[in-house]
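Internal ticket - ligand job 232, farnesyl diphosphate:
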Amino acid sequence: MNINHLAIIVDGNGRWAKKRGLIRSEGHKAGAKNLEKLILYISRNKLANYLSLYVFSTENFARDEKEVNYLMELFLKWFKTVKDKYSKENIKILFSGNKDLLNREIVDAIKKLEENTKNNTGLVVNFCLSYGGREEITTMAKKISQKVLDGKINIEDINEKLVSENMYYELPDIDFLIRTSGENRISNFMLWQISYAEFYFPMTYFPDFDEKCLDEAIKEYQKRDRRFGKIK
Ligand code: FPP
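stdout (C-alpha cells):
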C-alpha cells in the first residue's frame, strides 16, 4: 500500500531540549537537522509523492517573542541554504500559510524557493508555515464566493473538486499523518485534506524521530485496513 501523501506534525522539540537541560532553541536546531535528513530519506527512497510538514501554526505566533524570532531566523537560513540542494534532488517546494503574518525577507525566500523548484518532478514538499486549517478553509470560501459574485461560476458548480482546487494548493488527500511527541491532537492542521487519513502518534520527540522511526511508522501504516466508509 503506497503512501501518496504523507504528513508530519513536527512536535516535541522543546521537550527534547528540556530533557537534556538545553534551551528550547537547541531543540528547534536539532529538529531542523532531523527534518533535513528525513526529507532526503523520503525523497531518495520514494516513500511518498507528497510530504506536508506542519512547522509553524498561526497560533505559534503567540509564543515568546524570542522563540518566534529564533524560529523565523532558522527558517530563513534554512530556506536560503536548501535552495540548490533541493533542485538537485528534484524536490518541489510549496508553502501553505498566511504570508501577511510573515516578514518580507521570509516571504521573498519562500517565493524564490517555490520559483526555483517549480519545474521539479520528484517529491512535493508542502511547508505549512504561519498555517491554520480553518484559515485555509475560510480563504477558500472567500475565493469561491468572489468567483460567484464575478459571475465566473454558479452556486451549482460548487463541489468537492472545486473546493480542493481553491485551497492554498490543490493537494491530494492525506493518507498517513504522523504527529510526534505523544500528543494525540490535530491542532488545526489541513482539516479538509485529512478526512480519510490514518493517524499515528509516536511518543518520540521530533529530533529523535529518525529514519528508523519512520520505517516503523510506515510498517504500521501498511497494516491498516483502509475502508473509506465502505465494507470489504
Ligand atoms: C514543535 O515543537 C516545533 C515547532 C513549533 C517548530 C518546528 C520547527 C522545526 C522542525 C525546525 C525548523 C524547520 C525548518 C523548516 C527549518 P514544540 O516547540 O512545540 O515542542 P514542545 O511541544 O515540546 O514545546
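Auto-summary: Strands lie at 5-9, 50-57, 92-96, 124-131, 176-179, 198-200. The mean pLDDT is 96.
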